[in-house]
Amino acid sequence: QVHLVESGGGLAQAGGSLRLSCVASGRTFSNYAMGWFRQAPGKDREFVAGINWSGTYSYYSDSVKGRFNISRDNIKSTGYLQMNSLEPEDTAVYYCAADRELPLKGEFWGQGTQVTVSA
Q1: Gyration radius of the chain over CA positions
Q2: Residue 8: helix, strand or coil by DSSP?
């Protein structure tokens, strides 16, 4: 079992930045790929970004490519999502996920953190 806890959400203005963190505990974090999904009100959960176990490969949804950056620190068992040039359309609950391999399917999930972007 991998236990994931997100933090760093909050309120930002359009054009601003936020950094989300995801701290993992339980099994060895470096054995897992991880990433981020989000769910806006009334919409399905959607993939945002993923990164392999070593941090050498990452991929993004088209909607965030060029604005968001995913990274990880296996020593700290923590993953990050740096969100820049935020848009109101980025407003959602953001979930951290972990899987044994890419592409991410969500074997393990965090509880989510709210991100709200005002115009």
Answers
A1: 13
A2: coil
